[in-house]
């Protein structure tokens, strides 16, 4: 009986049904009745066998774990292989996808509006604007950007500053129990010596609070004779017990402006009244030689130099004149709502599209705007035009071959401050003029 039941397994019966179906298709019409009778007999037998096997299974399934055991026996070897390989394939595909996204020119979340050739042209144009021959190669700044640089970045446009350069000391040495020697390398990648004017310079010193009042002095060390020190600034520091440490600004503008044999280097000696030199650092408590200094000591003695140029002075005068002119235009600005006329439209510049998010720290993007639209004829004053453009438009309306029609162009521009890491790893804030369109007109 067992052998008989084994010969009628569901799998075998399915194969028999398929064979009979194929025979039915290929059998001549004359034999159709015989085949139909055979099918009915087989299906009747199949129904009885399946019913008997179902009852048997229901009885046996009452035993614990039988269902799982039978399922494991009935899975073909190929399905077992697929159940193992498929998750592995999914994991491998995820890894390959993430790696390929990391090696592309753009972050995976950024969809570029430009082709690779256009991106390269934009990179070259921006680098020329920035005065660079190549972009910095480092991935991340070696030392975090201090909080005060972000504050300077927010306010630099109001001060008409062209450059703000930030330097950590390349060497810090202990001369005695209360004196530090700070050595700075002032070399920069982009500089116009004949055009630059040092507006001010300051040392940002991080001192730990103590119970007593501190007296701090800053000296410039002469480059020809290191025994000659010039007093630059001195202060009495009151302790602020609300914090464990406090920032102190020392004015060293005089030293930075002074002519030196090597203008790319400067040394300062810092003298503290406290005998505990370790109060200078926020976490270090072991006085030693600091020619290779820890990051906390470097961050606690930064030099910040503010630079103006002749261009920033001209921009300041132009900005004041444009501000007055803009207020005058607002009084009688009845510009047409026709969208085809000259107007300012949106233009977003995203440095992530250039894959520069690793060295341009702020802004990640900005609204440059653009001027679009037609200049109607005759021109009226609310199109921010000039008498020359009005005359040019009249002549063009008479004979277009003589002069071109006035064009919609920017009439007022604004500067843009950019915080970035230069080729030498220094933190720089540069105020670039004419980077944002404020107003448009027909000229």
TrEMBL record:
<feature type="region of interest" description="Disordered">
    <location>
        <begin position="315"/>
        <end position="337"/>
    </location>
</feature>
<dbReference type="GO" id="GO:0005615">
    <property type="term" value="C:extracellular space"/>
</dbReference>
<dbReference type="Pfam" id="PF00019">
    <property type="entry name" value="TGF_beta"/>
</dbReference>
<dbReference type="InterPro" id="IPR015615">
    <property type="entry name" value="TGF-beta-rel"/>
</dbReference>
<dbReference type="GO" id="GO:0008083">
    <property type="term" value="F:growth factor activity"/>
</dbReference>
<dbReference type="InterPro" id="IPR017948">
    <property type="entry name" value="TGFb_CS"/>
</dbReference>
<keyword id="KW-0339">Growth factor</keyword>
<keyword id="KW-0964">Secreted</keyword>
<feature type="domain" description="TGF-beta family profile">
    <location>
        <begin position="324"/>
        <end position="443"/>
    </location>
</feature>
<dbReference type="GO" id="GO:0005125">
    <property type="term" value="F:cytokine activity"/>
</dbReference>
<keyword id="KW-1015">Disulfide bond</keyword>
<feature type="compositionally biased region" description="Basic residues">
    <location>
        <begin position="315"/>
        <end position="334"/>
    </location>
</feature>
<keyword id="KW-0325">Glycoprotein</keyword>
<dbReference type="InterPro" id="IPR001839">
    <property type="entry name" value="TGF-b_C"/>
</dbReference>
<keyword id="KW-0732">Signal</keyword>
<dbReference type="InterPro" id="IPR029034">
    <property type="entry name" value="Cystine-knot_cytokine"/>
</dbReference>
<protein>
    <submittedName>
        <fullName>LjBmp2/4b</fullName>
    </submittedName>
</protein>
<comment type="similarity">
    <text>Belongs to the TGF-beta family.</text>
</comment>
């Amino acid at each position: 009986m067992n052998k008989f039941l084994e010969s009628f397994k569901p799998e075998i019966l399915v194969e028999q049904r398929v064979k009979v179906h194929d025979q039915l298709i290929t059998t001549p019409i004359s034999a159709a009745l015989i085949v139909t009778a055979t099918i009915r007999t087989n299906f009747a037998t199949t129904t009885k066998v399946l019913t008997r096997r179902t009852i048997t299974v229901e009885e046996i399934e009452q035993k614990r774990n039988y269902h799982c055991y039978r399922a494991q026996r009935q899975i073909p070897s190929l399905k077992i292989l697929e159940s193992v390989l498929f998750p592995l394939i999914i994991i491998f595909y995820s890894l390959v996808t993430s790696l390929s996204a990391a090696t592309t020119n753009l972050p995976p979340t950024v969809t570029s509006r430009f082709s690779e050739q256009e991106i390269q042209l934009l990179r070259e144009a921006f680098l020329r604007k920035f005065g660079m021959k190549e972009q910095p190669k480092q991935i991340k700044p070696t030392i975090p950007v201090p909080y005060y640089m972000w504050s300077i970045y927010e306010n630099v446009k109001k001060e008409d500053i062209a450059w703000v350069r930030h330097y950590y000391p390349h060497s810090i040495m202990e001369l005695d129990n209360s004196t530090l020697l700070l050595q700075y390398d002032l070399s920069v990648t982009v500089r116009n010596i004949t055009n630059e004017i040092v507006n001010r310079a300051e040392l940002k010193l991080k001192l730990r609070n103590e119970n007593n009042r501190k007296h701090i002095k800053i000296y410039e060390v002469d480059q020809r004779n290191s025994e000659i020190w010039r007093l630059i600034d001195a202060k009495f520091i009151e302790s602020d017990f609300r914090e464990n440490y406090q920032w102190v600004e020392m004015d060293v503008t005089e030293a930075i402006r002074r002519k030196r044999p090597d203008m790319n280097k400067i040394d300062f000696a810092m003298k503290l009244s406290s005998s505990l030199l370790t109060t200078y650092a926020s976490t270090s408590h072991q006085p030693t030689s600091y020619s290779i200094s820890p990051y906390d000591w470097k961050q606690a003695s930064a030099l910040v130099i503010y630079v103006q140029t002749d261009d920033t002075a001209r921009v300041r005068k132009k900005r004041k004149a444009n501000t007055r002119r803009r207020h005058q235009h607002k009084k009688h600005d009845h510009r047409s709502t026709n969208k085809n006329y000259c107007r300012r439209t949106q233009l977003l510049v995203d440095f992530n599209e250039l894959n520069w998010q690793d060295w341009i720290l702020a802004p990640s993007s900005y609204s440059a705007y653009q001027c679009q639209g037609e200049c109607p004829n005759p021109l009226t004053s609310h199109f921010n035009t000039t008498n020359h453009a009005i005359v040019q438009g009249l002549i063009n309306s008479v004979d277009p071959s003589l002069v071109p029609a006035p064009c919609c162009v920017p009439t007022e521009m604004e500067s843009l401050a950019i915080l970035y890491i230069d080729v030498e790893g220094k933190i720089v804030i540069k105020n670039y003029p004419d980077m944002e369109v404020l107003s448009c007109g027909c000229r």
